[in-house]
Design goal:
This protein has 230 residues and is an all-alpha fold. The chain has a single domain, classed as Tetratricopeptide repeat domain (Serine Threonine Protein Phosphatase 5, Tetratricopeptide repeat, Alpha Horseshoe), CATH 1.25.40. It contains nine helices and no strands. Helix 7 runs antiparallel to helix 8. The radius of gyration is 18 Å and the shape is elongated. It starts with 75 loop residues before the first helix and ends with a helix.
Amino acid sequence: VQQEVRFDRKADQVPLMKSRWKGKPVSLLAPPAKPRMAEPYQVTSSKTPVVAMVPSTLTSPAPSKVKGDVDTVDKPSLYLERALELVKLRSFEEAFLWYRRAAELGVAAAQGQVGAMYVNGIGVEQSPEEGVKWLEKGAAAGDSDAQGQLGVLYLRGTGVGKDYARAFELINQASEKGNAKAQYLLGCMFARGLGVQKSSTLAAHWLKKASQGGIDQADHMLESLNKSTE
């Protein structure tokens, strides 16, 4: 049975599934199935992807059939609601268009979601470069999921040049906002010395926060960290 890996950041975001990936492997911002000090940004032993190739122009849908009368006015909240409904129906292509519509209106969470969908080829052709553009927008607007996901791309050098320092900056920003997955990654980066000076103390600090935020793998990583420092 093929293992599916999901990156359900929030209820209104698209699950990213390994079976839909046909490109080179790149990992998601999510905890691994097993703790791996050497690969803190893996989610499974086979590495789940994050990347995407799409026309630079894309037609957004006419907002005529969202709940209520939105024919003549842009209502991002309704676009997001419609996108969620389509995600639940697994109509990812249509969902992408509604997320894109909201993203074009400056909704940070939608910008991050559009970026992730481009990056993963979910509902749209793959384009790591286009994905990075949208993730940069969402990250600059303060969306912690966009910051964390973009940080992973800088770690891997996907759609952008590999840059551990920039990855650390982004993942640290997301962690400070309380993003548990980012806190897990930050702890792993401190444990490995990726983009920052190695520090078992700070690694443990962030891994504990990630554990408190519901990332079970943080506990396993803490155990590995404690054993390595004994």
